[in-house]
Write a structure and sequence with these properties.
The protein is α/β, with parallel strands linked by helices. The chain has 8 helices and 9 strands. The chain has one domain: 3-Layer(aba) Sandwich (Rossmann fold), CATH 3.40.50. Strands 5-8-7-6-9 form a 5-stranded mixed barrel, surrounded by 5 helices. The structure holds hypoxanthine.
Length: 276
């Protein structure tokens, strides 16, 4: 078996197991980034399973990530919710980081909702705040599509003109407005981490047009567009990026800050799901 065949076989095994857990067939998958973990307690959970029980599925090591897959219902719509993702900085190869996206594609997911915590570069006078991702910058990072193309998932050279679905962006804006939640819209720059950026890197990213910076989301969004999924993404801007804040950056600050805005973040995602 080639590496590609083994990878596809592993995807199929995970997907078969997840499909066997319930007779619901969700078309929406939500990734619960920092601060969004609460969403699991704010909706009806039909079934939950640890990643370690899913054949072939990786196990996440990042702090604040539950390592669980939930089958849930939001506004009458069945959804898969992933409590924890796989970051490149944890040492996974890029195929493992995006493994779950391909499992979701096999399961028939059409919409991927990505959430994360990010550092703010944009004019953000108060943190935490929320930002709808309208595009990204990631050309310094390894592509999840590198290597033999997975033809059963998508084409060799996928268009990236609209990674974040334009209709979803306006539904997110309308959802925030109806809930009275102030929200920004901007460009997310992906860095591999795990170290935070230097002030010089943040100045460079700002000149390139970035509004926020973070260590996740982009590989998954790229893999999802390759599979033909529609993607929506929201960042919780948990801190001012390096050089823009007075004190040093810390993971504790990110978690505390993401927690402060998690009610608004969860309500926004629920409202969005009810409208799509
Ligand atoms: N940089 C990168 N990733 C992050 C940050 C940051 O400032 N805050 C939360 N995730």
């Amino acid at each position: 078996m080639t590496d590609k065949e083994a990878y596809i076989r592993q995807i199929e095994q995970s997907a078969e197991y997840i499909a066997s857990l319930s007779d619901r067939r969700p078309e929406i998958c939500i990734v619960l980034g920092s601060g969004l973990g609460k969403l699991a307690s704010m909706c009806d959970i039909i079934r939950e399973v640890s990643y370690s029980d899913i054949p072939g599925f990786p196990v996440s090591t990042a702090p604040g990530h539950a390592g669980k897959l939930y089958i849930s219902e939001i506004s009458g719509k069945p959804c898969y919710m992933l409590g924890g993702r796989f970051h490149y900085y944890e040492g996974y190869d890029i195929g493992t980081v995006t493994f779950y996206v391909r499992v979701m594609a096999k399961l028939g997911i059409k919409t991927l909702v990505l959430t994360n915590a990010a550092g703010g570069i944009l004019d953000c006078s108060e943190v935490p705040c929320l930002m709808i991702i309208e595009d990204h910058i990631s050309f310094l990072a390894e592509s999840p599509l590198r290597g033999p193309n997975l033809d059963t998932f998508g084409v060799r050279f996928p268009d990236q003109s609209h990674v974040y679905d334009p209709e979803y962006i306006s539904i997110l804006e309308d959802s925030a407005k109806s809930l009275g939640i102030g929200i920004k819209k901007g460009i997310y720059a992906y860095t591999k981490g795990p170290q935070y950026e230097t002030p010089a890197e943040i100045r460079a990213l700002r000149m390139l047009g970035a509004d926020a910076v973070g260590m996740s989301t982009v590989p998954e969004a790229v893999a999802a567009t390759h599979c033909g999924m529609r993607v929506a993404a929201v960042s919780c801007i948990s801190n001012l990026a390096a050089g823009l804040s007075k004190g040093p950056l810390s993971a504790e600050e990110v978690i505390i800050s993401a927690d402060k805005i998690s009610d608004a973040d969860c309500s926004l995602i629920k409202e969005f799901i009810s409208r799509i």
